[in-house]
Each structure stands twice: as structure tokens, then as C-alpha cells.
Design goal:
This protein has about 250 residues and is mostly helical. It contains 9 helices and 2 strands, in the order ααααββααααα. The chain has a two-stranded antiparallel sheet.
Length: about 250
């Protein structure tokens, strides 16, 4: 941090203690904010990618003739859509986490092979994935049957038709709804604080617990950062939607 900026925020704190931007003039607190920011970005990116993969695979399974696969996907969707994400997170970490195998690097300390960060990724990805399955299913149903029949007439197998014809068209139709769900997922990553994942909200709460005068400044910075993250995601999705748009599909 440039010395002039550090000096400005230090003087601001001295003149108005309610606005203590300590992370702009204290290197230790600045490192905590940076660490929390990158953990938030890591959580968001991984969960977005995994949830999209779950949505694509789940939508494909829903369109299979195998009744067991369809029931399995429906059960998954109902479970994750009808329970709060925070409860799911706690269930994964505290309940399923009890059965996680451990390893001991020093012969004394037992460390689970899935950390709290790992459980947060799993839980949040499955939560958003359940909505993505329905989003992609709706997109698949919007693809005309005549298009699928034409692909089969050309010798495409069922899997090839889904991969090369149905999925690309369905993806275009699904992008607006997918965008909304992924924005919600990025905001939901803050709940990882409940299992001590050191993301940005966790670090900010820790800072103002240590320095009570930093509460207003911490919440302001947190607000601005999340506006920025969501804006980047929305803009990226919008540009992607425009780049792959086909007249007649997806609006």
C-alpha cells in the first residue's frame, strides 16, 4: 500500500474513529483481507464450474429411459432445493465429516482428508447444481423435437445428439436463468464462514472483532467487493450470451 494512502486512512481514523480502515495502513490486517478475497474467489470459481457440470450431467440423466436414474436425480433435486444451504453446509461438515478418513503427517495429529474448504465446495456446488439441473432441463425441453429427429436421421447416437446438438442449443436458452443462479451462488459462499472457511466475510468479522472501531469500514469494504465480484460475473455472462447467441434461441 502506498505510504500516502496509508497515511490518509490513518489520519481519517484519528479524526473519526468510527471509520477505522485499519487494513489500509496495517500490513497484517491487509494480508488477512487479501487472503480472504482470494479464498472467496477460489470458492466462487470452483463452485460455479462444479455446479454447472452437475447441472449438465443431471439434466442428461433426467432424459434417460432408465427410471432409476430419473428418480435418483429427482430425489437429489428435491433434497437440495427444499432445505436451506446453511443447514446443508453444517450437515456435510459436522455429520458426514465424522465419517471422513483421516491421515496423520506427524504421527499424532489426525487431519481429515476433506478440509472445511473441501466440504464448503461440495455442499455449495451440490446446492447450486440442483437448480442448474432444472435450468438445463428446461433448456433441453425448449429444443424442438424435429431438431433431435433430424440429428438421429443423420446417424447421430443418443449421446452424440445430446452432446453436439441438444446441449449447445439448450445452453443458449438456459444462460439467462443460469446467470441468476450463479450470482446467487457467489453470494451464498459467505455462508462458508459457519464452518470457519477463511473467506472474506470470515476475515472481516475477525478484524472488527479484534478492532471494534473497524466494523463500519469492514462492512463497507465487504459490500463494495461483493458488488464488484457480482458485476464481473454478470458482465462476463452477458458478453458470453451475446457471443454465442443464435437468432430464435435464447431470446
Amino acid at each position: 500500500m502506498p505510504e500516502s494512502i496509508s497515511h490518509f486512512f490513518l489520519e481519517l481514523y484519528k479524526s473519526d474513529p468510527k471509520w477505522n480502515f485499519i487494513f489500509f495502513y496495517d500490513p497484517v490486517q491487509a494480508d488477512r483481507v487479501i487472503e480472504g478475497f482470494w479464498m472467496t474467489v477460489e470458492l466462487a470459481v470452483i463452485c460455479v464450474l462444479v455446479s454447472v457440470i452437475i447441472g449438465v450431467v443431471g439434466a442428461w440423466m433426467q432424459n434417460q429411459p432408465n427410471r432409476f436414474l430419473r428418480l435418483l436425480v429427482q430425489g437429489y433435486i428435491q433434497f437440495f432445493r427444499n432445505t436451506p444451504p446453511l443447514i446443508q453446509l453444517l450437515f456435510f461438515y459436522f455429520a458426514l465429516g465424522q465419517f471422513t478418513p483421516t491421515y496423520s503427517p506427524d504421527g499424532w495429529l489426525e487431519i481429515p482428508i476433506i478440509s472445511n474448504v473441501g466440504w464448503a465446495i461440495i455442499s455449495l456446488s451440490f446446492f447450486a447444481g440442483a437448480f442448474n439441473v432444472e435450468i438445463f432441463r428446461s433448456g433441453i425441453e425448449a429444443v424442438p423435437e424435429s431438431t433431435k429427429e433430424a440429428a438421429e436421421a443423420l446417424g447421430f447416437s443418443h449421446l452424440q445428439t445430446y452432446r453436439y446438438i441438444v446441449l449447445p442449443l439448450a445452453f443458449r436458452v438456459s444462460l439467462p436463468s443460469l446467470n441468476n443462479n450463479l450470482v446467487n451462488l457467489v453470494k451464498t459462499t459467505t455462508q462458508a464462514m459457519a464452518i470457519a472457511v477463511p473467506e472474506l466475510l470470515y476475515q472481516m468479522v475477525s478484524i472488527y472483532n479484534d478492532y471494534s472501531t473497524a466494523m463500519n469500514a469492514s462492512m463497507l469494504l465487504l459490500f463494495i467487493v461483493y458488488i464488484g465480484l457480482v458485476a464481473v460475473l454478470v458482465f462476463g455472462m452477458y458478453r458470453w450470451e451475446q457471443a454465442i447467441r443464435i437468432p430464435g434461441y435464447g431470446g
